[in-house]
Amino acid sequence: MRPLDPHALPPVPWKNGGGVTREIAGVPGRWRVSLAEVSAEGPFSLFPRQMRILTVVHGSGMELHTEEQVLKARSGAPLSFSGDLPVIGKLPNGPVHNLNLIFDPRQVSGALAAHAGTRTVPADPDEVSLYLLQGTARCENVSLSAGQMLLKRKMPLDLGLEAVALCVSISRRS
């Protein structure tokens, strides 16, 4: 088990030129975890019949404007919405990086949970990735610092003082 720097993954530019996405993990047609670097305001891509969970991991946050409301995406706070929902992303305080989970709820259940403070986070067989948002952590003999990830963690994670970890879990529908 080695820490992964998602910024070292190849960037895929968006068609609208507003940013890039770095694919981290997934199963095509079922789910994917990615890191999006949003540098310009504009429409989100639609993901029909999918669910999205967006978590700001760098920057002051963003606003997701829909026809009926404005959803506020804040640092470290997972925000869930339908991939069918037309959204215009606004950046009132500049560019952001978002950890994204997109999944087909007909095939899998998806979750993104934040864990904070000095504590031990047990291993979860459904966890597919862990992103350390801030602070430091240890998993077995591996040290993590903010911005690093682990994939398919099998051992407990010890969070340091002021650490925040984002755990992404996927489980099959029965």
UniProtKB/TrEMBL annotation:
Q: Return any one Pfam family short name.
A: HutD
CDD domains the record matches? cupin_HutD_N
Q: Which domain of life is it from?
A: Bacteria
Q: Which InterPro entries match?
A: RmlC-like_jellyroll, RmlC_Cupin_sf, Uncharacterised_HutD/Ves
Coiled coil (UniProt feature):
none
The name of this protein is HutD family protein
| Species the sequence originates in | Ruegeria pomeroyi (strain ATCC 700808 / DSM 15171 / DSS-3)
Instruction: Tell me the lineage of the source organism.
Output: Bacteria, Pseudomonadati, Pseudomonadota, Alphaproteobacteria, Rhodobacterales
